[in-house]
Amino acid sequence: MRFVFAAVLLFAATLSPLAAQEPAMPGVSDAEREALQGALTRGLTLYQYDQAAWHTTDTMLEDVPEDRLRTIGGWIVEPVGDGLRVIYWRQGADAFFPVYSADYSADGVSARTLHPDNAPALDQAQSALVEARQIAFPKDVARCSAKPFNSVVMPTGKGDGSVYVYWLTPQETLSAMPLGGHYRYEVRGGEVVDQRAFSKSCIDLPTAQGGADGKTPAAVGIVHILDPVPTEIHVFSVFAGGLPIFVNTIEPKRTWAVEVSGGQPRARLIDPEE
Length: 274
What we know:
Elements (H helix, E strand, L loop, with lengths): L8 E3 L18 H34 L2 H4 L4 E7 L2 E9 L4 E10 L2 E7 L9 H12 L14 E6 L7 E6 L7 E3 L4 E6 L2 E7 L6 E3 L12 E6 L7 H10 L3 E5 L4 E8 L2 E6 L5
Parallel strand pairs: 12-13
Antiparallel strand pairs: 1-12, 2-3, 3-4, 4-5, 6-7, 7-9, 8-11, 9-10, 13-14, 14-15
């Protein structure tokens, strides 16, 4: 199969399910393989956390009185059982307190709870997530939407207490998803120790809902110049857009296929002679 990449590539090829990232990838270093596995894991988590916040926001707006809605400063997400719990918090004089919480899973939203004013404060781990979001608030970054960023906060998994804070350009229409204007900050010990953008420009890709011409593409493609492998944003966008993404990296020059198979993100190198 021959690929021609511009800013966006649409084509109607028949796509076979992609295999999971395999240990044997000719020409892929151990560091690149580790980076790709991290991207797959974080991209799935990003999508799950984003979905949990989206769906519980709907119930929160139904369940929380208007006067208490005004006190909510944000939310955090944490794993619980087979799903995720979203806690909407308010800031007190010296602590953060839950206003509303709900659980999200494959069965939908449950455990909808409006917490009383005298509810116990968030614990240390929960408060660390809130504080990381406040510390890593984006300033002087290029924006791809006039609407507020969506945020996702999660532990890095490094074992040092560090936290990733993502600021994501919101998807404004069902027919297109933004692939630009996404940022990641790493917070450790109360300060930002690393930050990055995932693109150098704004770009929207069509989704499974159909492109601008009303036709539904079979897949989309993007040229990526910042990393040698796909990132968690590509993985997140595969879930959000409902379409496979072909990522053309420059250093080294390779084409990667990223898609969802059996509910899990998958990636592989594409042979240019296919």
